[in-house]
Amino acid sequence: MLRCLMIKKTRNVLWMAIGTIAVLGLAGGVLADKPTALGKDLPWQDAHMLAEVLDRVEHDYVNPVDDHQLLQAAIRGMVSSLDPYSAYLDGDEYDEIKISSSGQYSGVGIEVSMEDDQVVVVSPFEGSPAAAAGIRTGDVIATIDDVPVNTTTLADTIGRMRGKEGTSVKIGILRQGSTDTLEFTLKRSRVELHSVKSELPEPGFGYVRIAEFSETTGDDTVSALRELRKRNGAALKGLVLDLRNNPGGVLEAAVSVADAFLEGGVIVSAKGRTAESKFEMKATPGDELHGAPIVVLVNGGSASAAEIVAGALKDHHRAKLMGRTTFGKGSVQTVMPLSGDRAIKLTTSLYYTPSGVSINHRGIAPDIELERDPKPQAVPAPADAPLEQRDPDVKRAIEELKVQAVHGSGSVTAALRAR
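and the corresponding structure tokens:
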């Protein structure tokens, strides 16, 4: 999911309630003339047409249908027709976006994926109930509370593992090498979603990977940089900031990450129709790396909030971008709560990099372009091999950092450009 979100805390939804009541009245044949409740600016002929369609579907469709479901579908279609990123969020969808934005939830702490019609554990989160119980990467989740998992959608499995803090859930696991189902009874607890990982591939050179932007990402990035300095025993000579396949997230988190490396200047600006959709966010004094060179790894999966960081660091000549042209999502969506624990995610702004450029549908070209479809290694490096052996792009980025550390941050060798 591509996201650059702003969360709106309150919203007056009276107009929507009035509009729904009026349409329901039309469907029941109560309103035969122009409905004043719909407001003078709403084309009442179209509202009347909607009522006619509802009436036809309700009476003539081959199977009985529920009016509530029809209206929910009409709302969803109305919002989704605006652009690819605007959406109506039902209760479950709204909860999911709040979780991913806040960076925490109550559950057992397992990252899962769907592989060959099986729900497979990608990894248990460090310090989570799942990790403490001994659930491992590669385990297959077969049952939850003795009921088989739904292998057609991950959302159902994830939802069943989450729940109120302190409650228990029983998970049945199939593990390679074991013929029996292993059962784990886990007590749900508060789980922190950490989107930032870091390594010290070589003395003096750090690596920070940001998978997405949640509300905690800015603080997590600063903590990761300080931990890298501590492990290095001295200031870093350079940093690889990995934003590849980062789909975006919370706008303020992206601004916070860019601010960590900038001493001042505009990070991002935005323009929309309303006063609150027009804004400009600036960096505050203080560079966590004290001017040490940065290489930002990007590709076609780097989108939205990730592009805000990449664009700000590039425009301020604070970092070199390496990789492939980014996705090109230059719009901001605002999540607006509605009644009944629902919401709409609505595109409210287009954003611009510090140089005033909109990257919408264009993306950001890297300073150093890498192969678009690199050939896989003849013999894949083992999972526990050093990062530079596992990831050739990281190796190239560190080579570039060494060049910059010797010759200055603006230097890029022709040989590296051609590789």
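(Above: one complete record from the training split.) Confidence is low (pLDDT under 50) at residues 10-39, 410-419.
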